[in-house]
Design a protein that fits this description.
This protein has 632 residues and is of the alpha/beta class. 40% of the residues lie in helices and 15% in strands. The strands form 6 sheets. Strands 12-13-14-17-18-19-20-21 form an 8-stranded parallel β-barrel, surrounded by 4 helices. Strands 2-4-8-7-11 form a 5-stranded mixed beta sheet, with helices on one face. α12 (316-332) crosses α15.
C-alpha cells in the first residue's frame, strides 16, 4: 500500500526472488546538495529491508507450502541470484530543492505530482529507481521495501520480482495533497512521538503533516514575542511545549522524508488557551455558563465546553496581538501554506457576556453572528496579506459559507469574505455541507476532503474510508487525528489502523482502488492491509495492532549471512535495536520487577538477602494466609 498503478498485487511473493545482502551497493547521481537527505533515505531503507521479522496469514501459509513443495522438486543446487546494486537516478531535474545536504522545507512546498513520479526496473542482478526529483526517489525506495520480505527458513532477505524476469513499475500519485492532521493541544506529544508518526507517514506515501499545534485546551507553541502564551497556556512548561529548535528539527526530519509541515492556528474559535498568558489584554470572550453546561456532550465537562471560547473580534488589541504572533509563526514554519481555522465559532458565547459584541451583532450584523465572524476573517486576511513572508491561507469549510444567503448569511452579502485570495484551500470537514467543491472552484479555491477521514470516529473503520468517494476536482484529502481520547500511548494505533486505506485511495488510481474495494477483492486488500500494518510495527516501531487474524512475528536482531564490517551497517543494526527497544517499552517495567526478584548477585551490586531466604519467607506467608482463609 499504496498500489503502484501497474502492480496490483504487492502482497504476492512469487518463487522468483533476488537475495538482498549487506554487500548490495548503492550508487547515485543525485546532487551533493542532497547528500545528507539521500544518506538518511538509504539508512532508512536498510533498517526496514534488513529487519528479521516475518508475516503469516492462513492463505499465505498455504502458498508457502505450495512453493516449498515446488522447490523440493527442483535441483538442490538452484539458488536465487544476488542483488548486487541499487541505482538511484534523478533524470531531467529542473528544480533544486536541497540546501546544505538536506531537502529544503520551503522549496519542498513548490513540488507537484510529477516530482513524486518514479520508475523502478528490477533486473536479474540490479535495481534502478529513477525520478525527476529526490522526492520521487524516496517514494520508489518505499515501494521496493514493500517487495522485500525476510524468509526465516532460508535466513535471507528476498526481493520479489512478482514472477517476472524483469519487472518495471511506473507510478505516480492520483492527488497532490495526501495529508494527516495531528492535534497536539488536547494531548501533548513528544518530539519522538511526532518523528515516529512522520516515519510511518513516509512508508505509505503521505506527504502533508498538518500540525494542529494549539487549541482551547493548551497552547504548547513557544512564541518569542509572547512567551507567556506557552508558560501559562500549556499543560506544563517547558516539558509540554514546542520551542523553535524542536519545531525546526521536526520540520527538517519531515522534509528529508519528502513530507511538508503546515501549521494551524485556529482563529477566532477554540481560543481559550490564548487568554491565559496575557489576561490584561482581554483577548478572549469567556462564557462560564456555556462552558460548564457543555451542551450536547455525552459527559459534560469543562475540558470540552471550553471549546466554545473565541477571541474578541471587537478588541483592536486582538489584531495587533495576532499580527505580532504571526511574525513568529511564519519564521518558524517555512511552507507556503498556513491554516488559520475558522470553524465552530460559537456566537452565543460571544453574545452572552459581552454587551458590546451583542449590540454590534444586533445593529451592524443584522442579527447574524456570522457577520461578526466575517468581519474578523476580513481583518485577519488583511494582516496575513501584509506580511513580507507570503502565505496561502487554508480555512475550514465554514468560511466558505459566509456571505451565502442560502445558508446563514445576509441577502446583501454583508458577511461575505471578499478578500480570500485565489488558491485558498478549503478543508471540507462537514459532510452535510452541500456543493462545497462547486462553490469553491467557482471562486478559484481548492478543496481538501476530510469529512470521510476522521480517525477518532470509532464507528468508522478503514473499509468505510476505503469506500469514500473522491472527486477528481479535489486537491486531495486529509485524515484527521483529534486527540480528546488518545495520547502517545495509543495515538499510533488510532492513526495507522486506518490511515493506510486513506493513503491508498489518495495515491492509487480510481480504477485500481475501485477494483481493490470491490466485494470480490476486498479480502485480498485486507490481507495487504494486514501485511503493511505488520511492516509498520516491525520496521518502524509503529505500535499498531492487526485488523484480522494473522501472525506478525517479533523482530530478530541476529546476524544475517554478512557481518557488520563497516560503520554504516553498525548504524543499521543500532537503529533496529532502538526499534526493538521501543516495541518492548510497555512490558519493560514488569521485566524490571521480575529481574529484581530473580537476578543473582553480581559484582558491583548488593543483595542483602539470599534468594533461598526470600523463597522460604514467601512460602511461609503463603501457608499462613491459606490457614487464615480456612479458619474463616
Amino acid at each position: 500500500m499504496p498500489i503502484p498503478s501497474n502492480l496490483p498485487n504487492l502482497d504476492h511473493l512469487s518463487p522468483k526472488h533476488l537475495i538482498l545482502s549487506k554487500s548490495t551497493q548503492f550508487t547515485s547521481n543525485i546532487d551533493t546538495k542532497c547528500q545528507s537527505a539521500i544518506d538518511s533515505a538509504i539508512l532508512r531503507f536498510k533498517r526496514r529491508a534488513f529487519t528479521q521479522g516475518f508475516y503469516h496469514t492462513l492463505s499465505s501459509l498455504q502458498k508457502q507450502q505450495d512453493q516449498q513443495d515446488q522447490q523440493d522438486q527442483q535441483d538442490e543446487t538452484t539458488i536465487d541470484p544476488l542483488l548486487d546494486q541499487i541505482i538511484l537516478t534523478v533524470t531531467h531535474s529542473t528544480k533544486d530543492i536541497c540546501r546544505n545536504g538536506n531537502i529544503d522545507a520551503e522549496l519542498l512546498s513548490t513540488l507537484n505530482i510529477q516530482d513524486e513520479t518514479y520508475q523502478i526496473a528490477i533486473h536479474s542482478s540490479f535495481v534502478e529507481i529513477s525520478a525527476t526529483s529526490i522526492v520521487g526517489i524516496l517514494r520508489g525506495l518505499v515501494t521496493v521495501t514493500q517487495l522485500i520480505a525476510w524468509n526465516p527458513n532460508k535466513k535471507q532477505h528476498l526481493l520479489s520480482t512478482c514472477g517476472d524476469d524483469t519487472l518495471i513499475i511506473e507510478d505516480q500519485p492520483r492527488f497532490a495533497w495526501r495529508g494527516l492532521m495531528l492535534d497536539t493541544s488536547r494531548h501533548y506529544y513528544s518530539k519522538q512521538s511526532i518523528v515516529n508518526i512522520i516515519n510511518g507517514m513516509e512508508m505509505i506515501k503521505i506527504n502533508i503533516f498538518h500540525w494542529h499545534i494549539v487549541d482551547a485546551q493548551s497552547f504548547p507553541y513557544v512564541s518569542k514575542t509572547y512567551p507567556l502564551l506557552a508558560k501559562k497556556g500549556s499543560y506544563q512548561y517547558p516539558e509540554a511545549t514546542y520551542d523553535s529548535a524542536t519545531i525546526q528539527e521536526i520540520i527538517q526530519h519531515a522534509a528529508n522524508n519528502g513530507i511538508r509541515v503546515i501549521p494551524e492556528f485556529d482563529l477566532p474559535s477554540h481560543a481559550a488557551s490564548w487568554g491565559r498568558g496575557y489576561p490584561e489584554l482581554e483577548l478572549t470572550v469567556m462564557c462560564p455558563e456555556l462552558i460548564k453546561d457543555d451542551s450536547g456532550a455525552k459527559v459534560p465537562m469543562q475540558e470540552h465546553g471550553i471549546d466554545r471560547v473565541s477571541l474578541n473580534p471587537l478588541n483592536n488589541q486582538t489584531y495587533l496581538f495576532i499580527s505580532n504572533l504571526l511574525n513568529d509563526v511564519l519564521d518558524s514554519f517555512p511552507d507556503t501554506y498556513i491554516h488559520i481555522g475558522g470553524d465552530e465559532v460559537n456566537t452565543e458565547c460571544w453574545k452572552q457576556k459581552n454587551r458590546k459584541i451583542k449590540n454590534w451583532i444586533d445593529q451592524k450584523g443584522n442579527g447574524h453572528g456570522s457577520n461578526l465572524q466575517a468581519y474578523f476573517e476580513r481583518r485577519l486576511l488583511n494582516i496575513l496579506a501584509t506580511k513580507p513572508l507570503k502565505r496561502i491561507p487554508i480555512v475550514w469549510d465554514e468560511v466558505l459559507d459566509l456571505g451565502d444567503s442560502h445558508l446563514h448569511g445576509n441577502k446583501d452579502g454583508s458577511d461575505e469574505i471578499n478578500n480570500l485570495p485565489s488558491g485558498t484551500v478549503i478543508q471540507w470537514w462537514r459532510s452535510w455541507s452541500n456543493n462545497v467543491i462547486e462553490r469553491a472552484t467557482a471562486r478559484s479555491f481548492k478543496v481538501v476532503q476530510s469529512h470521510s477521514y476522521y480517525l477518532d470516529h470509532l464507528d468508522t473503520d478503514w473499509v468505510n474510508m476505503y469506500h469514500a468517494v473522491l472527486n477528481d476536482q479535489l486537491l486531495g484529502g486529509e485524515a484527521c487525528s483529534w486527540s480528546e481520547h488518545v495520547s502517545s500511548i495509543n495515538v499510533e494505533h488510532q492513526i495507522f489502523s486506518k490511515l493506510p486505506a486513506v493513503a491508498e485511495k489518495l495515491w492509487s488510481t480510481a480504477i485500481d482502488t475501485t477494483i481493490a474495494g470491490s466485494k470480490i477483492e476486498i479480502g485480498q486488500t485486507a490481507r495487504r492491509m494486514g501485511r503493511l500494518l505488520c511492516f509498520l510495527k516491525q520496521r518502524d516501531g509503529i505500535m499498531v495492532g492487526p485488523e484480522y487474524p494473522d501472525y506478525c512475528s517479533d523482530v530478530s536482531v541476529g546476524e544475517t549471512e554478512d557481518t557488520d564490517t563497516d560503520e554504516e551497517n553498525k548504524e543499521v543494526k543500532s537503529a533496529k535495536m532502538l526499534l526493538r527497544s521501543q516495541q518492548q517499552q510497555q512490558v519493560q517495567p514488569r521485566r524490571q520487577l521480575l529481574s529484581v526478584l530473580s537476578s543473582d548477585s553480581t559484582e558491583g551490586s548488593y543483595s542483602p538477602v539470599p534468594k533461598v531466604v526470600i523463597v522460604i519467607v514467601m512460602l511461609f506467608i503463603y501457608v499462613a494466609f491459606a490457614k487464615k482463609i480456612c479458619i474463616r
